[in-house]
Amino acid sequence: MRRPTFSRPTLEAKLLTFILKRMLFAIPTLIAVSIVAFIIIQLPPGDYLSTLMADLASQGGAVEEGTVAALRERFGLDQPIYVQYWKWVSNIVLYGDFGISFELNRPVTDVIWGRLGFSFLLAILTLCFVWAVAVPIGIISAVRQYSITDYGVTFFAFFMLAVPDFLLALVSMYVLSTYFGQSVGGLFSPQFADAPWSLARVGDFLAHVWLPVFVIGIGSLAALVRIMRANLLDELHRPYVTTARAKGMSELELLLRYPVRMALNPLISTLGWILPAVVSGEIIVSVVMSLPTTGPLLLRALLSQDMYLAGSLILLISVLTIIGTLISDVLLAIADPRIRLQ
Amino acid sequence: MTTDPQLQPVLKVRNLAVQFPTRTGVVKAVDDVSFDLYRGKTLCVVGESGSGKSVSARSVLQIVDRPGRITNGSMELTRPDGSVVDLAKLDPRGKQIRAIRGREIAMIFQEPMSSLSPIHRIGEQIGETLRIHFGTPKDERRTRVIELLKQVEIPNPEKAIDRYTFEFSGGMRQRVMIAMALACNPSLLIADEPTTALDVTTQAEILALIKKLQAEYGMAVLFITHDMGVVAEIADEVLVMYRGKVMERGPVEQIFHAPQADYTRMLIGSVLKLESKAEIRLKREPEAIAPELLLDVRNLSLTFPGGLKAVNDVSLTVSPAKRSVLSARAVRARPRWDVVSCVFTIRSKAPPISAARTARSSTSALPRARN
Ligand SMILES: Nc1ncnc2c1ncn2[C@@H]1O[C@H](COP(=O)(O)OP(=O)(O)O)[C@@H](O)[C@H]1O
Ligand SMILES: [Mg+2]
Prior knowledge:
The complex is a heterodimer.
Chain A: H1 11-42, H2 48-58, H3 65-75, H4 81-95, E1 100-101, E2 106-107, H5 108-143, H6 148-162, H7 165-179, H8 199-236, H9 239-246, H10 251-257, H11 259-269, H12 271-288, H13 294-303, H14 307-335, H15 337-340
Antiparallel strand pairs in A: 1-2
Helix pairs in contact in A: 1-14, 5-6, 5-8, 5-12, 5-14, 6-8, 7-8, 7-12, 8-11, 8-12, 10-11, 11-14, 12-13, 12-14, 13-14
Chain B: E1 11-22, E2 25-37, E3 42-46, H1 53-61, E4 69-78, E5 84-86, H2 95-100, E6 105-108, H3 112-115, H4 122-134, H5 138-151, H6 157-160, H7 170-182, E7 188-192, H8 200-217, E8 220-225, H9 228-234, E9 237-242, E10 245-251, H10 252-257, H11 262-283, E11 295-303, E12 309-318, H12 334-347, H13 355-360
Parallel strand pairs in B: 3-8, 3-9, 6-7, 7-8
Antiparallel strand pairs in B: 1-2, 1-4, 4-5, 9-10, 11-12
Bound molecules: adenosine-5'-diphosphate and magnesium ion.
């Protein structure tokens, strides 16, 4: 009798299918997000022009009705909302044209790329910081369960979870400037703000960026420490750990190779919510610390109903988040072969 | 002292005691246990669950879970070079005991699924022992692992080496565990209920495999079980444990034919009782077939397109008053399920038995190695 041979698709093929599927699923999410972004910016009564006129009127000036109508027509504001939406989206997809910012009277793309770059950089740095610090602390906390270190870490973690970002931003800026005489706020010292990139500028950037990274990341860091600790405690006494020990592996190698490796898997999927947390935390914190990122720009655009600017910012931030989630799914599928089978 | 190394025990355990200090008091999990293990011989430790079998076995490798502690006794291991170490004196986290774990004493466990990592390829997990103890380079390791997989009769070793545990059936996973234990050619194999989680057929295959490999490698085997049937199958010597204490120790013939301890008699008796019940039932006159049969299967056969006869001429009846158990002790496990799927295909008035569909229902299990 012949034994059947392996003819099932390999796990590697399944990984590829998995990734493609996830990318396909991201498309409807993107469409939904663009619709929601557009609806949100349309929700407040009136439009940019009515806000503009109200401002002018409060300053004693007045605009003729005809001019307003002409402007409305020029910006397409007199058309039904779905037509406006369709124009906006099709221009983005076809030409990379995000419309214009009414208030700044410049194309949205000119205004946002630089800031979006800093937002992105800040988010990446924060994620790296959060992971690099949370994982080792979580490991120590779990391995030394109920020790002084563990209690200390746990207390600190809960404390940091409870403190809001903006408060931490204000307090740390106050402390640093009054007691340490540091220049705080922004990502650069004034002389470097608009200078071209150089080694000195990078140094200045690093000297400024650690504070926002710390402030934005600390809440997520505390949450991650708790998750890592709990995951690892679950894994530490699993039978496969005993198996590895019975092979003669050293305790440290064993810890890192088996239980820690297993505990990291659920942690990868937290990327899905840490990324949005970092992005929204970044928006609030950058307003407080006046960082040259998308946060302050978005706030101003929302206040003045500068709809294409605000909509584009919301859309791009959401897209970045979706991409982040996609990356975390793929990483998880690479890290845990069991995921690929589902 | 004998000079013949063959007569020297590989491991000599004397007065071993292991305690677990707990909030309610000290649990004496192992209390004054002594035994000897010889090359090529199998010692079976039997006893109901909780009698301290696993703790005894783990003490040998110093891997007792906390807060367990060896409080007394000696465990003298004679190494291949003739030197003797007392394992009880070694630091559980030290280099010395680590050099012995997996190298001279290897262990396999009850649950192969949870005892293997689900996210590491099996080849990696098997080859690791070689890396730890011999620093074997990667490609050499691969060759050796494939060789080991062949020895434990896993089909397609070249492909199987890169697969994960969840792609294997229970029996195959236990074979992987055995391959892992054999990697460094240990002089003592400790098997802690390696067949308890497996079905009867697979259990017999694994037992046969362990016996075969023991003969090839000339290992001493410490085999833990609570099943007297398994003891009869594999043991040379038997150690009966109850509540951490040794009830009786002796050659397998003595244990079965002239048991000294009441507890041993009870253990043997409970097996016999089970069997005699079945025999009594067989001896009874078959009852007249009840008027209301739920299911009456006659001469059912199922042949797969490849020519594999999964079910051959099976007849059975199910009446409402009795429960029927389809047991296939001697044959492979698969057919029992196939009979059930045939029956359901018929009962649901589906078109003639679709072999493809039935075959599908069992693809989760890998092909068995021994046909
Ligand atoms: N981690 C532990 N903590 C406390 N007591 C334990 C622990 N492990 C085992 N024991 C005690 O040791 C006894 C024997 O356990 P074990 O050797 O696992 O039994 P078995 O014979 O079923 O393998 C148990 O009844 C229990 O009281
Ligand atoms: Mg046990």
